Structures are given as structure tokens and as C-alpha cells.
């Protein structure tokens, strides 16, 4: 971009959705968007799979035991280009605020864990699908491909990108986004209310977000959703479930490009919207020390290759491609060096 956007406010949502209810959650999201814009925010960030809620049950029980709840999630997942999606776009445009929201995205018979990007004019520049659902999440979500590993140039808040949860552990993704000039990075988590392992908790994952800021010299905006008693009652079916899934788990933070946190620690039970100011001018000072796409690289030793090809399980060959065998033979000969 030719000029650096002026400092702006970012809003982070810890308020939960109306769990597993698409219509009511969209209505709630529109109200939160309006509230953040009224406060002066130019970007509002929701946690992972906020719409209409994270499938916590996948960590607690088997597929047969969870199938009815998973079917309910399927029925309430968001379809891009639907009326519900348009309502979110209209809210962003009406209030002149960019939105990044974790969604359960449904396409065909598959649900994806996605980040929905909406610009201040209501347009959708990117739907970013999680590359690899973590552990038990594969019971519910399909995986994305490299075609949406992109940052987007927004109207008013610079170059914007984002990862979902443990994508922050995947080697190379930070380099791929830094190479595109990412200035504001959304680090979306669902909630830190599953007591299964330290690596899934708040402190470990906050460290990942903070490290991302230092490695990429970008602002990192992180949000996770508060789990209420109503959600616990919906998810937990036994005393055993209650040992691992509880209320709380909310989180909101912004890390500056040098890794400094800009907010005091948020109470994990406090549901609401939290705000911080982002000044993109600070990025250049971090890059004077470490420019991860410039003077602090060694491409002669370490290189990252990102495949951004869109994949499909089926390829149709039409009549005009009747000479496909000839093309394939020629390609193979080129690859193996036959003259």
C-alpha cells in the first residue's frame, strides 16, 4: 500500500453466540458489530467457529454418541452467499467496519472451520479454511487447501490475514503470510475451557500468538469465546464430561510487532467486547531489528514453498481435451528429461 492507514481501534469479542442457533447468532453478531462501530472500532474480531459455536463434544465422546449434536451443527452452519451471510455483510457496510469471524462453513455435505473476512464495504475478499483440523476436530470438519493462504488489502486497516488455532504451530505459514506483507494478523481460538492438556490451554496458545507477532513483525489480534453455563449444559452429558469441559475460557489480547501485549489480562468469564488501538507505523521499528522477509532471512539455507493451487477430488475432461493422452505423455517426457 502507498500510505500507512491512520491508527485505528480493533474490537475483540468474547461474548458467546446463541449456541448452535444460526439465526439468533447472526442477529447477535449484527448487534455486536453495531456496538463496536459505535465505540469507534474499524475492525471487529470473533473467535474460532463463533458462528454458531465450537463443537466441544468432539473431545468428549465418540462419533456415534455425538452424531445428533453434529447434525444440529450441520443444520446451523453458514453457507456463503446465503441470506444469513448477506445480513453480516450488510451490517459491516452499514457501520463501516471490517469483520473477521470464525464460522462453521457448510458447502455441499461438508462443514469447514473457516475465517470469514468482510471489508468495510460489505464485500467478502476471503474465506479462509483451516488447513488441518486438530485431533478430534476431524470428526466434524473437512480440511482446506492452499488456495486461500492469502492476506487481503482492506479499505482502511492495512493488509489483513489470519490463522485458526493450532495453525500457529505449522512451520512455514508465518513465513508465507509475512512474505505477503501482512500487517494485522487475526489469531482465532474457540475457548480455553477444555481441560485436556496444557498445550490446549490459554497460556500455551497465548505464547504462540505472541511469538507470531515477533516472528512476523505484525500486530496479532487474538480472541476466544466465553463458555457459559447454558453451553456447558448443552454439551455435557455425564459427570465424566464435566471433568474436562467447564465455563469460562474467554480471552482477548493484541500483541504489538515487538511482542508487547497491549491489554491487561482479561477475566476468562467476562463476556463482552474489548478494545485496543493499532498504529501500523510501529511495524517499521520492529523490522529495523528483524525483517523476516528481508535482512533477517537466509534463502540460501532455508526456503519455504507454499502450494496455493485449489484442489478438487474430481477433474472432468471434455471432448475438446481428447488429445489429453498426448499432453500427458509430453509432460512426463519433459519431467524425466526425454528429448
How many domains make up the 3D coordinates?
Answer: 1
Query: Beta-strand level of the residues, as a percent range?
Result: 15-25%
Helix content: 25-40%
CATH superfamily annotation: Carbon-nitrogen hydrolase
The low-confidence parts are: none
CATH architecture call? 4-Layer Sandwich
Distance between the termini: 46 Å
Strand element count: 12
Largest sheet: 7 strands, mixed
Domain CN hydrolase: 8-280
Organism: Tumebacillus avium
Keywords: Hydrolase
InterPro entries: C-N_Hydrolase (IPR003010), C-N_Hydrolase_sf (IPR036526), Nitrilase/CN_hydratase_CS (IPR000132), Nitrilases_CHs (IPR044149)
Describe it for me?
This protein is α/β, with parallel strands linked by helices and 339 residues long. It has one domain (8-289): 4-Layer Sandwich (Nitrilase/N-carbamoyl-D-aminoacid amidohydrolase), CATH 3.60.110. It is built from nine helices and twelve strands. The protein has helices at 22-38, 63-75, 83-95, 173-178, 202-216, 229-235, 239-244, 282-289, 324-336, and strands at residues 8-13, 41-45, 98-107, 110-118, 126-129, 141-142, 152-153, 159-164, 184-188, 219-224, 251-255, 273-278. Strands 1, 2, 3, 4, 5, 6 and 12 form a seven-stranded mixed β-sheet that branches. Strands 7-8-9-10-11 form a five-stranded mixed β-sheet, covered by helices on one side. Helix 1 (22-38) packs parallel to helix 3. The longest helix has 17 residues, at 22-38. The mean pLDDT is 92. Keywords: Hydrolase. Residues 8-280 form the CN hydrolase domain. GO terms for molecular function: nitrilase activity. Belongs to the carbon-nitrogen hydrolase superfamily. Nitrilase family. The active site is at residue 48.
